[in-house]
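sry for the spam today, last one i promise. struct tokens for design, 104 residues
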């Protein structure tokens, strides 16, 4: 089953397709991004913010993200995936639900 990693602003990528998460500051990475700019191989998920990470996929796509590479790597390593986890027994969220309180 594909696991989706949040790369910022509600955008997600398939964790099984990620080859590398790199900083966009290195010259080779800049050349890579420039070479695919204007093609369907470049996906800009920055929502107009500064690009802080470039995700290279096994399908030869480059995904631009406004999150730091370390943040994406931590989410990838920790398998912080999109799912609807149930609150743990005794957690703060469970206590609110038990009392019927609504908190945002």
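last one done:
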């Amino acid at each position: 089953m594909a696991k989706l990693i949040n790369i910022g602003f509600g955008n997600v990528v398939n964790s099984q397709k990620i080859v590398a998460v790199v900083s966009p500051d290195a010259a080779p990475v800049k050349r890579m991004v420039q070479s695919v700019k204007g093609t369907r191989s470049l996906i800009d998920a920055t929502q107009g913010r500064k690009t802080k990470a470039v995700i290279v996929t096994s399908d030869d796509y480059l995904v631009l993200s406004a999150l730091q590479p370390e943040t994406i790597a931590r989410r990838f390593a920790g398998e912080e995936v999109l799912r609807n986890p149930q609150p743990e027994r005794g957690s703060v969220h469970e206590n609110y639900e038990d009392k019927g309180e609504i908190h945002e």
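Residues 4-79 form one domain. ok im logging off now
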